[in-house]
# Entry
Amino acid sequence: MRSAFLLLMTASTLAADVLTYPQTRKENVVDTLHGVRIADPYRWLEDDNSEETKAWVKAQNEVTFGYLEKLPRREEIQKRLKELWNYERVGMPFERGGRWFYSHNSGLQNQSVLVTAKSLEDKQSKVLLDPNKMSADGTTSLTDYEPSEDGKLIAYGVSEAGSDWTTIRVRDIATGLDLDDVVKWVKFSGVSWLKDGSGFFYSRYDEPMPGAALTAKNEFHKLCFHKLGTPQGEDKVVYERKDEPKWGFGGSVTEDGDYLIIQVWLGTEPKNRVFYKGIAPDAPVVELLHDNDARYEFIDNVGPVFYFRTDLGASCFRVIAIDVRQPERKNWRIVVPEMPNVLLEDVSSVGGQLICVYLRDASTAVNCFDMDGKFIRGVQLPGIGTAVGFRGRREDKHAFFTFSSFIHPATIYQYTIQNGEWAVWHKPRLGFDDTLYETKQVFFTSKDGTKVPMFIVHKKGIQLDGSNPTLLYGYGGFSINLTPGFSVSRAVWLEMGGVFAMPNLRGGGEYGREWHLAGVKLGKQNVFDDFIAAAEWLIANKYTTSAKLAIQGGSNGGLLVGACMTQRPDLYAAALPAVGVLDMLRFEKFTIGWGWKSDYGTVENGLEFKVLLGYSPYHNLKPGTRYPATLVTTSDHDDRVVPAHSFKFAARLQENQAKGSPPTLIRIETSAGHGAGTALNKTIEKVADEWAFLVKVLGMKKD
# Structure
């Protein structure tokens, strides 16, 4: 009875908000795929350069911000977010040429700066790169940076307004001045210097046609070498494949400087190839691993012996060694064997040891081995949570790692290679009382009987009476692992009395390759079933009710939210799909979208088309349905998941939402992209809008 009353109260409150949405023109656009006629009346919104689309964006934002600005607790939430975010944040330090480098944010800087110091104890660190001074609105960000081996120069990549496109420049560290070198149209690339500092390797696409930079397909990637002091037009193409337009390349020089390792990828396919060449310009490229039969990640080499992390014959990964003088498979050696049901998430080579980072039920464990695979020790971590890092060089005596959990922000530890001991190097100080909260992990049963883990975080002593406003967050794709980690925005949600729940859905990589493959292509519905089962478990176990439950996800997680709110609109009160992939019949046609076919499949395949059409959020909205209160979020410079997905979905959602039902809004950020590099002030404003929206929808009261 109580849940029914809450539902009626929430519905009547929301229905009182009379919103007039912009009229969105419909076109008679119909595609026929595999004999099925499919209407796409909002196709014209795919043209982000048209004046009509720009006018639509402006009109939608006027309605959305007109609604959000009137929400009673919005300013209060924004103020608290600023207070909590205003703490010193430091990145893990690393050394080159006797000089130390690390990122630093004093608190509310829109972008972190890169500083350099002569030692870890040096309190007179020097700001080397400050992206906050590169644009008036704080929307220019550093995408990558790599010092030369001698620590005299640094190559750094800059992105404008959140785009994936990067421009690389080179700075003299002593003077703080940039050289004349400028490398443009870089994307999905790192920077790797020659040992002598005479130039660096990078990856790029051809310059797109005017007006097409944010939407055109990305094809014909090239691995290039830039020689310092020369124009980009003279850069040498080290490797390309004109017969394979969708192959991508990443080049890295080995620590000894003898080899260039070439990682070859095809979109997000969970397999790859690895080639290499001697460092001499005329050395041939050797196709060492060319069968595309597994995932191979280069770790290190000892002369001609190359070490790889791979899932070949090991769903949860293992470490193998290949002597490139005898590269036949019969000569491959297993160095660190697979641990069943425990994911070998990362391996680094530091101080003559292989430091192996594992996931046990989505929490970190660490073991160390020598280069022959002999077990040395397990690393006792500060608690149950997530550890990342352990990077370094062969001669290093120390490595650094960060450790965090849902209620503890990332602390940086200095780890001693010889004895396995660690000490705090930097611990953040912020005004969040972690003693008031608790985290637990539960396992629920999905539709097909699969056991799925879920983390739940909330204030201690809450009553399990169905009254708790709950935010259910998920992703479930591309072998991405969701692990415990601190978030200022979630901390504020917890302070507001909210419950946060995060299931480890199939499609992720938390339990290895098979867990991932169980949620792709024809099995993608498993991911949605897992998420729906998580919601039902929270309700059945009295954490919340449908009237108090919100769902959230971004990118592939935006697809998750879109699919679940169209399949079970009755199950949730609110939905927050961010930068989502929402038109599953046309995702392949824009930027890097073709690269997602390994997870989603393709409309070119009849069976996969049927599945895609069956869950595509844009195509499964039904007239007169009462959908949850929805705040779609996207950005005008998102060239990863183009905003047309969100535009079309929002237009159709507004068209189909039953009269008198909750609001269906779209918030379109300007001068921002898919998420990386977003200015902090924009992030704070967006989160404040989302939390204020949920306060209204879920009927949250102040404690």
The first strand starts at residue 30 and ends at 33. Residues 528 and 700 are 27 Å apart (CA to CA). The radius of gyration is 25 Å.
